[in-house]
Amino acid sequence: MSIDRPEIFFRLIHPKEKTLGDVILERHFPTAGMRQSNISPNKLASIASKACLIPDLFFSVARFNGRRLLLNFEQTSAVYVQIPASTDLEHIMKVYNLLDKNLIPLPTSIIDDGEFLTLFWVLKTPLYRHEFYKVYLLHKAISSVLAVYKSINSHLSVDFTTRLIGTMNSKKNKIVSLARHSGRVLSNDQLESVLFKRFGADEYQKLQKHAMIIQELLALFSDRFWTISQRPELFEEWLIYFGASMAFFCESKQLKTELIALSESLEIKPWIKIKDQYDDLITNIAENSRGGYLHHQGVRLELNRENWLDIISHRLTITQCEIDTLGLYTLGEVNHRNPSFQPALHKVHTIGSNQFVTTEILLMKQA
Q1: Whether residue 317 has pLDDT greater than 80
Q2: Closest CA to 228 of 64, 321, 73, 349
Q3: Where are the alpha helices (DSSP H) in the chain?
Q4: Helix (H, G, I), strand (E, B) or coil at 357
Q5: Which member of 36, 139, 173, 316 lies 3.0 to 4.6 Å from 156 by CB, making a disulfide possible if both were Cys?
Q6: Do the strands 299-302 and 116-128 form a parallel or antiparallel pair, or are they unpaired?
Q7: What angle separates helix 235-246 from helix 252-267, to the nearest 10 degrees?
Q8: Mean pLDDT across the chain, nearest whole number?
Q9: How confident is the model at residue 289 (pLDDT cuts 50, 70, 90)?
């Protein structure tokens, strides 16, 4: 069924309880380009009511600590898949039948913007920073089932945005609507069931390992943030180590965006001032790291080989104190876990420079 009160949908996608991070709003102005704003999740419904018929306004499904990056991901209460819209009146029912045939739970909601249908599965329990690989795997699992409808695989990353209900899609001259809303939520048991039916244990564990490497590098980077500038000779290595694992979760374009933001945080300078220094390396990492190797400074680097964790630990001189305090169990190759360590609540530094504008600017009729 469809509903006329989209605030119900917004409360499910971005609940007020147990909330970490901000929702990102963005709009592309024909003359001023892309503009972004960060808002508290509990303001989304109110802003949507003011944005009626505003053209091309998007919101993030996940919440972030800073810019809309995987490295700034905090949590999500929903996963999604986007497929092309259709004039076929039975289109949605055919999609439902295909999902049901493949034992995928039916979505909570569907947004129709005239160009795409965005299907949402709301989660009973949010997925936090250290669980982002589950978001990626769920997107991949559902997208593979809907591949016959040309599901948009480039939107597998957690940085996904979609059009705000009630706004206009200027390409199609259509008001964005909530086409379906059942209110059903996906339990943790259902989530795990979908994952284990679609992926083998080896792939699941491989992605889990690389997700932990990213989170531990981020924890180490954040802990050393105010002293990291004393080792500029390691800046390129930080980019390589992050990029080698992030390549499993990001398409080339998104990976380059992530590493550009990381280089800004390493140098504490805007990209325009450091582009000449890092552009070649970042492009190389983004385009080639998924293949398992890089050519850097005349040396062929084999990424993620058997002693890769030893290389990272040695080059970054990770201490036993850092392993114990920050919970660097993967980088430190420690087999036990500290039961008091909660990675979801571990504070990390915002990556990249922020250039947010006020929501009033995004709601302007034109700019």
Answers
A1: yes
A2: 349
A3: 6-13, 44-50, 91-101, 132-145, 188-198, 201-223, 235-246, 252-267, 271-288, 308-315, 320-326, 359-362
A4: coil
A5: 139
A6: unpaired
A7: 150
A8: 87
A9: confident
pLDDT at 242 over 70: yes
**Number of residues written out for the chain:** 367
Q: What percent of the chain has pLDDT over 90?
A: 48
Scan for tokens 């409808």, then name that residue. Answer: 149
Look up residue 52 and give its DSSP letter: T
Angle at 176 between CA 172 and CA 178, to 5 degrees: 140
Give the strand pairing for 57-60 and 161-163.
antiparallel
What span, in angstroms and rounded, lies between the C-alpha atoms of 128 and 158?
Answer: 11
Q: Which residue has the higher pLDDT, 214 or 303?
A: 214
Q: How confident is the model at residue 346 (pLDDT cuts 50, 70, 90)?
A: low
Q: Are 163 and 175 in contact, with CB atoms under 8 Å apart?
A: no
Strands 293-296, 116-128: pairing is unpaired
Copy the structure tokens of residue 23.
């929702």
Tokens 């992050």 belong to 242
Q: For the stretch 196-229, what's the b/e string if a residue is b when 16 or more beta carbons lie within 10 angstroms of its beta carbon?
A: eebbeeeebeebbebbbbbbbbbbbbbbbeeebe
pLDDT bracket for residue 241 (50, 70, 90)? very high
Model confidence at 2, pLDDT cuts 50, 70, 90, reads very low
Residue 90 half-sphere exposure toward CB, CA atoms < 13 A: 3
In this structure, the strands spanning 299-302 and 168-169 are: unpaired
Q: 68: buried, middle or exposed (CB in 10 Å: 19+, 13-18, 0-12)?
A: buried
3-state secondary structure of 231: coil
Buried b (16+ CB within 10 A) or exposed e, 320-329: eebbeebbbb
Question: Residues 71, 262: contact at Cβ < 8 Å?
Answer: yes
In whole angstroms, give the CA distance from residue 10 to residue 164: 10
SS3 of 55, please?
Answer: strand
Nearest to 9 by CA among 157, 93, 109, 81: 109
